[in-house]
Amino acid sequence: MSRNWQEAVKEVIDESRVLTDISDLYSYSFDASFGTFVPEAVIQVKAREEVVSVVKIANEYKVPVYPRGQATSLSGGSLPVHGGMVLDVTLWTDTLEVYHDDLVVVASPGVLTADINQAAEEHGLFYPPDPSSAHVSTIAGNLAENSGGPRGLKYGVTKDYVIGLEVVTPEGKVMNTGGRTIKNVTGYDLTKLIVGSEGTLGIITKVTLKLLPKPQATKTMMAVFDDIAEAGAAISQTLTSGILPSKMELMDQNCAISVENFQPFGLPTDAEAIILIELDGHPDVLEKEIQSVDEIVRGVGARYTVLAETNKEAANLWKARKMVSPAIAAVKPTKVSEDATVPRSKIPEMIHRLNDIKEKYEIELVVFGHAGDGNLHPNIMCDKRDQEEMMRVEEAVGEIFQAAIELGGTLSGEHGIGTLKAPFMEDEVGELGIEMLKKIKDSWDPNNIMNPGKIFAEPGQKLVLRDE
Amino acid sequence: MLNLGKSWCYEMSNNNIRHREKINYDKTFDCVQCGYCLPACPTYQTMEKETHSPRGRINLVKMYAEGKISAEDLQEPIEKCLGCQACTTICPTNVEYGRILEGAKTVLEEELPKTKKQNVVENVIFNKLFPSAKWMDWIGDASWFYQSSGMQILAQKLNLTSVAPLNLDQFEQVLPDLPSPVERRKRENHQKPAGVVKAKVAFFTGCIMDSIFFKTNKNSVDLLVESGAEVILPKAQTCCGALHAHSGKIGDAKELAKRNIETFEQEGVDYIVNNAGGCGAHLIEYHHLFDDEPEWQERAQAFVEKVRDISQVLVELDGLQFTNEVNEVITYQPSCHMTNVQKVIDPPYRLLKKLPGVTFNELEDPNFCCGSAGIYNILNYEDSMDVLEVKMDDVRQVKPKLVVTTNPGCLLQMNLGIKKDGMEDRMRAVHLVDLLVEAGAQGRL
Asked: Does some domain include residue A412?
């Protein structure tokens, strides 16, 4: 091998899409999580054949390949932790086709998730997964991390909608999984294995997603609780009443205080919990259902409820939820956003544990999230420049994971494992679980070139949120 | 955590660290790198890499301040930013991108050696042209002479002007018709309304506006007077200094700001009114210039509180009626600096709605920059045209007869886009103020 791998890549990819300037390399050295890792080249691919050529080179030279969408990952999924090449798919948006009669959409990896939903809506359909970054994130990134969102409660997450894939394997071969049918039990479900594998098993080059008929209308209400246990009861009683809301979002007292300090919105700052509920379906049915939910939540002790009469009023209620991010950012600049998830019945207990952790480590912690499916977002506001504080935060995060697992929950409901949660994997899946996962990884990717450093902890790896 | 990319790091340079305060290093920590700014950024769309995104630029500023990259590495990403600040409007954590960008430009201005040609050009633009009322007047007169004498047509035919540097020839073709020098000097500096005085305002003439767009300024004053305002045009006012600040010439920007503050505070007016989105955005941030001069900061604050775009004042005074049917399809290209910095969004729409006979077609993405961005289109011509092309794609869908703008740079740029499309016989860009006058604006009794 006389030439180096960068030269080999430039023979198969237009040089304008092979970035090696220092400013470019640093611009692909981060995502929305933690750490700066500078790659040796960034390759902007636009076609399957390009991926095949590049991956073959990578496999031949044993160079790490880091697939990357818009790098909105909160777990470090796209960080090039071992140098090598970043494979940027954001320019690859040429296919976005809705097959109306099949209720299916086919898309290139770089298409934005929100654009897929928009295309579906033009046909009276919709793509339910709605991560809050949907207007920024690519569909391939969503698949890799198996993204969720508020609608996960009723509609499930990304994996529930992926029915077919085209994938370039770590050895540079093109494989098709699944197809265009809703039912498919032919062999192992490789489609679902790829979804959520965080780019460690191959490069997704085309996705086939199933769509649903778009609900005709939505209805929103807010319920305020003095006691978090009552909020928990309201959630479980609603869900067992025969009504399945599309969203049930919780904000804890600390959230309400942050929002009110940031921009007065009229949220009660003395209540332990606020729940926002959205129902979707036929307008006539919604009128009755929202009344039923109102009775249920009042019955378990809600201090008061607010029913949005118009879409504008509904939007205004959701605005309060949207204000949480800027409000807590104003408290302290660094945000550690977790997504530990527990069985729904354990939500009140999890929130109590989170408050204990907040006290113990003297940290700024708020809890919001998708309470209806047990997927909470404890967010810790801190300052990256304060080493001592960050060490406390690292310990607190470890304890949050511990609490989730002890309550029968999981490390991650929708953000993925990446680098940040890798050290805690074994606590949840056990030694054998790790061993089986590794066997799969080794057989797919014998040279360990696909997104190395993710999911599986390096020997002795610990959670580090500090630079250097 | 492992960081095998370390071989790429530069030695931590003391020099870069010295600049931390000036480059607003602390403010870069407000960015949580969520990427929500990416879809809003015009250059991320046209240049197709993270290096030219807000999140990317903020990260590079941080890397520079940490000594990991050099000033040369930082230069291009910073210079290619339009400064439209669409990112600040979308940012969920309120990162002060404008201040990070300006800090970076100030530091680069100090750190990077300039070529001789660049120095000459900048010297003319920043030290001679913009601050000098005389020069701008002269330019106004000279362009008037150039246009009315037929020289322009001749020059265009012979393609003489195409050898001009900085692609000025492109913009020359879309300059508006200018009033004669006599008209220019006839303007009164203090005008009162016929009826009750509803407000006393000082009009900020601007330098470009007052030379090339003299007529728009005249129309602005007329509209204010018709609306019931007593209008003063302070003679000692000067260039707002926006272009200086955006180019890292912070010392010059401060001097100009001080002169304007001194001049306008003597007038005891309710509002300081301007009609150029870019100027207004800078005027309204004068206090940012004086973090280290508390006395001036206080005076700047008082000045800033009075700054208004003309559309705000016309809506507030609510004293106009319109007598001419416009009967055209129009669209509105908001000035980025008006939307994202001044946060003046509704007033122009409210005025447009009042025009009789108008069919208003909204652009699909009105908040996408047109690529003018101060003198960006002169300094980065090719990149600016890529951005303009995206804007024109949107305009073509809407098929307007008139493209309404609220900033001179946008106006020229949109006219250039229309000309490049060969549409100049069917479409034109117009300043909101001029359209109001065309629609027969007059005081309501």
From this structure: no
For an interface test with B, which of A21, A26, A28 has the most B Cβ atoms less than 10 Å from its Cβ?
A: A26
The whole-angstrom separation of Cα A93 and Cα A107 is: 8
Domain count, chain A: 4
Pair A277, A343 in one domain: no
Radius of gyration from C-alpha coordinates of chain B: 22
Domain B4-111, architecture per CATH: Orthogonal Bundle (1.10)
Q: Which CATH class is domain B320-443?
A: alpha beta
| Residue A468 near residue A450, CB atoms below 8 Å | no
Q: What is the pLDDT along chain A (468 residues), one digit of tens a residue?
A: 557 999 999 999 999 999 999 999 999 999 999 999 999 999 999 999 999 999 999 999 999 999 999 999 999 999 999 999 999 999 999 999 999 999 999 999 999 999 999 999 999 999 999 999 999 999 999 999 999 999 999 999 999 999 999 999 999 999 999 999 999 999 999 999 999 999 999 999 999 999 999 999 999 999 999 998 899 999 999 999 999 999 999 999 999 999 999 888 889 999 999 999 999 999 999 999 999 999 999 999 999 999 999 999 999 899 888 888 888 888 899 999 999 899 998 998 999 999 999 999 999 999 999 989 999 999 999 999 999 999 999 999 999 999 999 999 999 999 999 999 999 999 999 999 999 999 999 999 999 999 999 999 988 889 888 875
Domain boundary at A88, A108, A124, which?
A: A88
What's the number of CA atoms in the CB half-sphere (13 Å) around residue A5? Answer: 19
Based on the domain organization, do A313 and A354 belong to the same domain? no
* Spatial CA neighbour of B102 closest among B23, B160, B10, B210: B23
C-alpha–C-alpha distance, residues A137 and A68, integer Å: 10
User: In chain B, whose CA is at the least distance from the CA of A23?
Assistant: B73
- A319 and A283, same structural domain? yes
Q: Residue B381: phi, psi to the nearest 5?
A: -55, -50
The shortest C-alpha distance from A125 to chain B (Å) reads: 22
From chain A, pick out residues whose CB is under 8 angstroms from the CB of B96.
Answer: none
Element of type H or E holding A255: helix A253-262
Which domain range does residue A187 map to? 96-213
Torsion angle of C-alpha atoms A339, A342, A347, A349, degrees rounded to 10: -110
Specify whether A82 is located in the same domain as A176. Answer: no
Q: What is the ipTM of this complex?
A: 0.95
The structure's pTM equals: 0.91
Interface test with A, best of B25, B33, B48, B49 (most A CBs within 10 A): B49
Nearest to A26 among B29, B60, B76 (CB): B60
Domain ranges of chain B: 4-111, 116-172, 181-314, 320-443
- The answer to whether residue A423 sits within a structural domain is no
Q: What spatial distance separates the first Cα and last Cα of chain B, rounded to whole Å?
A: 74
A209 and A222 part of one domain: no
Residue of B nearest to A82 (CA): B4
Q: What is the CATH number of the domain that holds A116?
A: 3.30.465.10
Q: What is the CATH number of domain B181-314?
A: 1.20.1050
Domain end point (choices A282, A300, A325): A325
Minimal Cα distance from B63: which residue of A? A26
